[in-house]
Amino acid sequence: MRGIFASCALAALLLSAAWADHQHHHDHSSEHSHEGELSCHKLSSPNADFAFALYKSLNAQTAAGKNIFYSPLGISTALSMLSTGASGETHSQLFSSLGYSTLNQTQVNEAYEHLFHMMGHSQEAQQLEVGNGVAVRTDFSPLEKFLKDAMHFYSGEIFKVDFAKPDEAAAEINRFIASKTHDKIKDMVKDLDPSMAMVLINYVYFRGQWEKPFDGNHTHKADFHVDKTTTVKVDMMKRMGRYDFYHDTDNHTTVIMVPYKGNTSMMIVLPDEGKMKEVEGFINKDYIRHWHNKLYRNSVELFLPKFSISADAVLDHSLKEMGITDAFENSADFSGMSDSIKLKVSKVSHQAVLSVDETGTEAAAATTIEIMPMSMPININVNRPFLAFILEHSTRSILFMGKISNPTAA
Ligand SMILES: *[C@@H]1O[C@H](CO)[C@@H](O)[C@H](O)[C@H]1NC(C)=O
Ligand SMILES: *[C@@H]1O[C@H](CO)[C@@H](O)[C@H](O)[C@H]1NC(C)=O
Ligand SMILES: *[C@@H]1O[C@H](CO)[C@@H](O)[C@H](O)[C@H]1NC(C)=O
Ligand SMILES: *[C@@H]1O[C@H](CO)[C@@H](O)[C@H](O)[C@H]1NC(C)=O
Q1: Strands (E) located in 322-375
Q2: Which residues form the Serpin domain (predicted)?
Q3: Poorest-confidence range of 21-30, 51-60, 163-172, 382-391?
Q4: 257: β partners
Q5: The whole model's pTM is what?
């Protein structure tokens, strides 16, 4: 042990806020075909694998009937920023768990830079903000290169806080997070350790507007079946329209894409009654791709609950289970952050919020008229636990994903 300050801790705090409204859809495949292999698309496949590996771990720790919701992109981003300061085994564990073993740090950094750039083209109807922050102890100077990389590649904002006054430091970090999440996440940080050296912060804020809003006049009270014996009342929205949909009989699942304005959609994966466990057991990025390819446009009468959930998670256990262990131990090698002080990660926490309602924005709900063929619409009733994925198409990212077991649970 060469460090004298072995108790100095580095906390990576990950958080995200989603704010979703829904509706609309267009075909994005044509936008992809002429783009070629974009730098940020290198991340798409490993990030999706990471997202599902994390799901499996979180799900195993989550009590039945509890919601799971997180931002895979946010977590991958924060760990990648962390890896810019890591070396040796600490670095290889991060890279291999993230699925980046065939890439080097420069390629990953550049891919994220490109991704932030693409996402920066925020459309008027869609707000998508992804970025990072680094709160640094007033009397601690991280290596210049780490701070430069965080700023340059990860849209990181660096600010100094006085961890010797933990309450003030927490308040300051919470103010930063609240401002970046438009007050959706306010009290993320509490009980800071006065020996903290740095806090890494990631945020993802998404506020979408359905391409085709629901008509609030059709929202009604209805039953949602949490499980065989538990039923809760939800505000059920209803909309008849043309949606991309697929019913996979073999795999007991109905999939529907509900598009937001811009380049994002919510993909709803609704297992047949009693089949959630089975579907969660096999789901991975290949199923998502398969279903995505099989989607076809149909008349649908869609029933979707209106809800708002918040989920937080301490990710330490899951990340360790996924092979990121050294980062948390005294053997951690963050020599790319500091050559004088030994650092390790003390805690990785994450919070994500999701709101789904008829429009999602205060903007007037413009009515869209669709030409309906003269056929009976398919009825899709999201009245039981489902999986939801908020997908960003231009960068092929999973912004958020989760399992909504009970829309009325806080
Ligand atoms: C990273 O990989 C790229 C492409 O293979 C290569 O050009 C570059 O020199 C590598 N950078 C480092 C720092 O190893
Ligand atoms: C809801 O119903 C009211 C009263 O019938 C009507 O004025 C309003 O336009 C309806 N809203 C929408 C979005 O259609
Ligand atoms: C069920 O999933 C498997 C694996 O992705 C796939 O090969 C098969 O085609 C799916 N079944 C249907 C009806 O789509
Ligand atoms: C979708 O993404 C493409 C590629 O980044 C961008 O050029 C386009 O403006 C985006 N469209 C919308 C509606 O956001």
Answers
A1: 345-357
A2: 52-407
A3: 21-30
A4: 244, 267
A5: 0.87
Could you tell me the two tokens for 206? 């998404």
Among candidate residues 188, 178, 235, 204, the one with its CA nearest the CA of residue 348: 188
For 9-208+309-355, give the CATH class. Answer: alpha beta
Mean pLDDT of the chain: 84
| CA–CA separation, 348 and 313 (whole Å) | 9
CA 53 to ligand 3 centroid distance, Å: 20
Whether ligand 2 lies within 6 angstroms of the CB of 364 is answered as no
Q: How far is the CA of 217 from the centre of ligand 2 (A)?
A: 6
- Is the per-residue pLDDT at 35 higher than 70? no
Q: What is the 3-state secondary structure (H, E, C) of 114-157?
A: HHHHHHCCCCCCCEEEEEEEEEEECCCCCCHHHHHHHHHHHCEE
pLDDT tier for residue 29 given thresholds of 50, 70 and 90: very low
| Residue 131, pLDDT above cutoff 50 | yes
107 CB within 6 A, ligand 1: yes
pLDDT one-digit tens code per residue, 174-192: 999 888 888 888 888 888 8
| Domain locations along the chain | 9-208+309-355, 216-305+365-404
Question: What is the whole-number distance in angstroms between the Cα of residue 273 and the centre of ligand 3?
Answer: 18
**With a 6 A CB cut-off, is 290 part of the ligand 3 pocket?**
yes
Q: Is the CB of 293 under 6 A from ligand 3?
A: no
Ligand 2: which of 23, 217, 368 to mutate, judged by most atoms within 8 Å of the beta carbon? Answer: 217
CATH superfamily of 216-305+365-404: Alpha-1-antitrypsin, domain 1 (2.30.39.10)
Distance CA 128, CA 70 (A): 15
Ligand nearest to the CA of 237: 2
**Cα–Cα distance measured from residue 296 to residue 256, given in angstroms and rounded to the nearest whole number:** 9
Residue 297 — very low, low, confident or very high, per pLDDT cuts 50/70/90?
A: very high
**CA of 105 relative to ligand 1 center, distance in Å:** 8
